[in-house]
Design brief:
The protein is an alpha+beta fold. The protein has 4 domains: 1-36; 42-131, 2-Layer Sandwich (Dna Ligase, domain 1); 153-216, no CATH class; 224-392, Hypothetical protein af1432 (Orthogonal Bundle). The protein contains 18 helices and 8 strands. It has helices at residues 9-26, 51-55, 76-89, 113-121, 173-179, 181-184, 187-193, 215-218, 224-246, 251-260, 265-275, 279-286, 290-298, 302-312, 317-325, 336-352, 366-372, 380-385, and strands spanning 67-70, 94-98, 108-110, 127-131, 138-144, 153-160, 164-166, 206-208. A hairpin with an 8-residue loop joins β5 and β6 (153-160). It starts with 8 loop residues before the first helix and ends in a 14-residue tail after the last helix. 28% of the residues are buried.
Length: 399
């Protein structure tokens, strides 16, 4: 039987677009009339609608999870005050998500005050804080109400299943995935995101394979190399805007530095594919800084490998230092401001381009490094508004 639910979402939407266009034309309308379906929501609620504005239409509010909107226009002090008042009423963990977003982009579980502070300092948009819900069942509800009617009706109810396996006390999670008919056809995606593939669940234990089943995890992910390229391209675009905004570096040089900053990961990746296919995921799970992990496993970090490549290619010294010092920009002797600029761009991408993050950069010295560029955390919203929204989406340039 054809398993339609494993079809890539891009292909599924082709039929939806064709059907909606044909329906609109048959009624003498244009395809763009579909955005008038929900006139009270921007673009009919199809995209970029505010979650808080949508939920405000549903009363009473005690029927959904407690939440609060933290506006990017507030000062850092006001953001912290709003967040602290919320977590006093709703203990950690909480979920932080962009108020306007799609397919889980930018969604993070917040377990500590330090993680919450990171979000508050570099918010690219308005964020919603919401109570973390760990219930075993989740449903998607399609509710429809005509404007001239007092009540609507539920026209569709879809249960969302988080992939899980049943342990037998002997087989690993990887082996159980192969033996579970309901999920084995999604094997590549599960292997990329599973929590611990070598874990052996106890006999009779229902073991959840991944932490969440959002659109980001549900969609097929491109290869690690594709993610490396998209992360590099996004970092280059952010670095360019940072250079224009701060006037601390030539924008074209900053763009080039952003594009090349992780070039050392490419030769390492050739080895990881066969020898350590789950290297990056294991590093994230253990919370170990990537360069340290690479050094322990391969004897060389991607910054050191990148420096070797830069020297062989005879790249200018300032770009060489961006590649080798973007984790510790103050170590750059050639152009510390350029290295810091690329570090900040890399940090933004690692925080907000969730589907493609391979490493999480530390933000402990962020304030000091921002000062080197003449920036403060309060200026981040202004800067982020200058960056095209497509930079933080899961796909750039359609690749």
């Amino acid at each position: 039987m054809f398993r339609w639910h494993y079809t890539k979402s891009n292909y599924m939407y082709i039929g939806i677009h064709l059907m909606s266009t044909a329906l609109a034309l048959s009624k003498g309308l244009t395809p763009f009339h579909i955005i008038l379906t929900n006139p009270n929501f921007p673009l009919g609620g199809l995209s970029a609608a505010s979650k808080t504005e949508v939920l405000d239409h549903f009363k009473p509010t005690d029927q959904y999870l407690p939440q609060v909107l933290v506006s990017k226009d507030l000062s850092l002090e006001k953001r912290r005050q709003t967040a602290e008042e919320f977590i006093r009423a709703v203990p950690l963990p909480v979920v932080a998500k962009p108020d306007r977003g799609v397919v889980g982009i930018g969604v993070r579980r917040i377990d500590t005050l330090e993680e919450l502070n990171e979000i508050l300092e570099i918010m690219p948009c308005d964020y919603m804080l919401q109570e973390f819900c760990d219930y075993p069942l989740e449903y998607g509800i399609f509710y429809c109400r005509y404007p001239d009617r007092e009540k609507g009706r539920v026209v569709s109810l879809t249960r969302k299943l988080i992939p899980s396996v049943m342990g037998d006390g002997q087989k690993t999670v990887r082996e159980l995935i192969e033996l579970t008919p309901e999920i084995k056809y999604n094997k590549p995606n599960l292997l990329a995101h599973a929590k611990t593939l070598d874990h052996v669940p106890a006999a009779g234990q229902r073991y959840q394979v991944i932490d969440q089943a959002s659109g980001i995890l549900g969609n097929r992910q491109r290869s690690r190399r594709g993610n490396l390229f998209q992360h590099a391209l996004g970092t280059a675009m952010v670095a360019h805007e940072l250079a224009v905004f701060t006037e601390r570096s030539a924008p074209d040089i900053a763009y080039t530095g952003g594009l090349l900053h992780d070039i050392g990961k490419i030769p390492l990746d050739q080895y990881m594919t066969s020898a350590a296919p789950y290297f990056y995921r294991c590093g994230q799970e253990k919370g170990i800084e990537l360069c340290k992990l690479e050094k322990e496993r391969f004897g060389v970090s991607h910054t050191e490998a990148g420096r070797v490549l830069a020297e062989k290619w005879a790249l200018p010294e300032n770009l060489n230092h961006v590649i080798s010092c973007h984790h510790e920009p103050e170590e750059s002797q050639a152009d510390p401001e350029l290295a810091t600029l690329v570090y900040v761009a890399d940090l933004l991408m690692s925080r907000f381009q969730v589907a493609h993050e391979i490493e999480l950069l530390g933000a402990e010295q962020l304030k000091m490094r921002l000062e080197r560029l003449g920036l403060t955390p309060q200026q981040f919203p202004v800067l982020i508004d200058r960056i095209p929204r497509t930079v933080f989406e899961t796909s750039l340039m359609g690749i």
